[in-house]
């Protein structure tokens, strides 16, 4: 069970941290938040939950107008150009516990389940008198200084790390990644793994079912006329919704044969030779993280739009038919 807003605010008061509280309707974007607190003098922030290929998680907290280039950030962490991408919603629920979509915050590290998450803070936060963050729920915003945020982080054993997120230093043989020390040592077990292995403590052979679930996907690649509805749903959908990584892999598996076919005809080269020349397997590995990141972005946008639509419908019609409480 995750920490609550009340527990967090009580901890801030216990630490004698000065903050201002602003209550408002539920908000899912920085733009929505600005409508309610934008005139109070604090600096708006954006907070991203990122994941690398080894399932290590990062929270990036930056000023709303700071440009965060994920490819550059990935290189600075020593993870290559496509090493980090937006983490799927299920990671947010599992690691940050009760923190809802649109409410990633440095205060999420208050949860024990987020102890292995790395936090990167925009150095621009230090130049502001106060900055806005959600306290584990997106119907409240609190304003506090970066020094008071540091005080909280140190109280939970997190050393604040401020970086220039807009910098683009050269990374190479003679210039090692400047943010490599911020890569967390531990990896979080994703929801896909937890679904496949529901009782890891009682079943030490957790890798066996995982291999079995992967093998049919490889064998299912031969062309079959009626593979649409049944095979696609079983592979791309999980109990937690669309599987972004499998979806991206399937898209690439469809696109590359078409590309090879057209290119080999125009260049008059056999597909096998063209595959070796272009090193398409390497290209797939590099393209997959970007495609997964874009897919995750659209998935989260769809979730947000659905939430707004449902919430508006409830306000306009649902609440009207409910009996009043006495």
UniProtKB/TrEMBL annotation:
Example GO molecular function: aminoacyl-tRNA deacylase activity
InterPro entries the record matches: ProX/PRXD1, YbaK/aa-tRNA-synt-asso_dom_sf, YbaK/aa-tRNA-synth-assoc-dom
YbaK/aminoacyl-tRNA synthetase-associated domain span: 24-152
Coiled coil region boundaries: none
Sequence similarity: Belongs to the PRORSD1 family.
Protein name: YbaK/aminoacyl-tRNA synthetase-associated domain-containing protein
Organism of derivation: Aegilops tauschii subsp. strangulata
